[in-house]
Amino acid sequence: MDQTTLRYSRQLILDGFGPAGQEKLRRAKVLVIGAGGLGSPALLYLAAAGVGRLGVADCDAVTFSNLNRQIIHDSTDIGRPKTESAAAKIGRLNPEVAVIRHDLRLNIDNVEELIRDYDLVLDATDNFTARYLISDCCYLLGKPVIEGAAVGYDGVLMTIIPGQTPCYRCLYPQPPADGVLPTCSDTGILGMAAGIIGTTQALEAVKLILGTGTTLAGRILTFDALTTGFRQVPWQRRAECPLCGENPSITELVEYKIQCRTKEVL
Ligand SMILES: [Zn+2]
After folding, report:
1. Distance from the CA of 240 to the center of ligand 1, in angstroms?
2. How far, in Å, is the centroid of ligand 1 from the Cα of 223?
3. From the CA of 121, how far away is ligand 1's center (Å)?
4. Which of 103, 152, 159, 179 to pair with 13, CA 20 to 30 A apart?
5. How many angstroms separate the alpha carbon of residue 222 from the centre of ligand 1?
6. What is the pLDDT of residue 263?
7. What pLDDT is stored for residue 257 in this prediction?
8. What pLDDT does 119 receive?
9. Is the model's pLDDT at 75 over the cut of 80?
10. Which residues contact 197 (CB under 8 A, 6 or more apart)?
11. pLDDT range class, residue 16, cuts 50, 70, 90
12. Residues 30, 90: contact at Cβ < 8 Å?
């Protein structure tokens, strides 16, 4: 058996997978925005599964305070750009994956160019400015996006497919006000809570690519690490949604500058 077949042998024998499924993964182009607590496990599992082209977008460098959850980076990576550290780790895990580094801070001028060439997007960012840009842009470009968030002991995940599911603004039509949001640096975060959400984002991506199983489309997943409790909450498209509703008021990208309660500290 050749090395590639051996590498994927334990998933090739799964029902609903096989060589055809592996080929779908090899042809897939997936973008992970944020190589942090969510993006780390998502990138590792997508690479291990054999996604052919994997984009990594981040603008930060690795710090010691990242390492309780950002498992794609390690102590030897301190000070390195996260895209570089992640690309190196993916290269060692699975050299068959083409990694595309996007060492940039997401903004209204670069988000469309960033996303345009990918089949689907994992939003693994940690702030609402990026989240609205990514979810609006994916809706306007017709790209599926898997939204993940984790803070404290809690996580949440939603799979958004334009034209099929509610959009992010069906739930949150407008961003929260300045200064009301906590950040990881002032509320903390348990590594495993981020890990479970990031891993589940990768799982959703693989199911979308394979066309197998049932995705979370139309249901929001919440996770409470303290009780190990998972819940799925149905959500609906809203006719008055400013983005996907009957009379949308948002027809092009808008950028919000939303300040958290305290600034990120290292
Ligand atoms: Zn909507």
Report:
1. 8
2. 23
3. 18
4. 159
5. 20
6. 43
7. 79
8. 97
9. yes
10. 38, 148, 149, 150, 155, 156, 157, 223
11. confident
12. no
